[in-house]
Amino acid sequence: MNVVYYFDELIVSEIKKKNEVALRELYKTHYPMIVNLVRSNNGTEEEAKDVYQEAVIAFYEKVQQQGFVLTCKIKTYLYAVCRRLWLKRLAEKKRYHGNIEETETFLGIEEEMSTIAENENKFASMRESMSGLGEPCRGIIEDFYIHDLSMEAISEKFGYTNADNAKNQKYKCLQRLKKLFFAKYKNEDLS
């Protein structure tokens, strides 16, 4: 099951019509993310602008192709393309010492897009599973893993007699979450 936001569908629809306003909106929306990517990886804002323009042009051309279907968020697509282009430029400038083609970490764009889309689906399934978990389980898991509370603090907050009892409850909650997640994830794989 591919999750694509309404905004993305609207942008793609308008770009297919060669709407320049939609293209400018797309450009403005995701530009800061790419500047951050390039600047935090030995680049300048000018280099980020070049890479981003190249990625947006590639996206525009892809959208114009007959039968184009968006299978992930536009943001995901642009990030993957820009990351790939930036790594290639770093390699050309000898500022990146790996071999992009041979390194498992740097997959081709299509493989990377597939991996990212799969991860997005897993995160969506996990969010749904967490929301279906109910209290006190959701609260215990969030407090421990997200808010970094100790078992003693969780024990006090939820009224358990000691940290060991809270730890046992957390284990049971994790088992329930695991069951919910895999049930949802398997169902999404089948659809």
From TrEMBL:
Keyword check for rRNA-binding: no
Record-annotated membrane-spanning stretches: none
UniProt keyword annotations, A-Z: DNA-binding, Sigma factor, Transcription, Transcription regulation
Protein name, as recorded: RNA polymerase sigma factor, sigma-70 family
Gene3D superfamilies for the chain: 1.10.1740.10, Winged helix-like DNA-binding domain superfamily/Winged helix DNA-binding domain
Sample GO molecular function, one term: sigma factor activity
Protein family (similarity comment): Belongs to the sigma-70 factor family. ECF subfamily.
RNA polymerase sigma-70 region domain segment(s): 26-95
NCBIfam families recorded: sigma70-ECF
Domain of life assignment: Bacteria
UniProt record, GO biological process: DNA-templated transcription initiation
InterPro entries: RNA_pol_sigma-70-like (IPR039425), RNA_pol_sigma-70_dom (IPR014284), RNA_pol_sigma70_r2 (IPR007627), RNA_pol_sigma_r2 (IPR013325), RNA_pol_sigma_r3/r4-like (IPR013324), WH-like_DNA-bd_sf (IPR036388)
Keyword RNA-binding part of the UniProt annotation: no
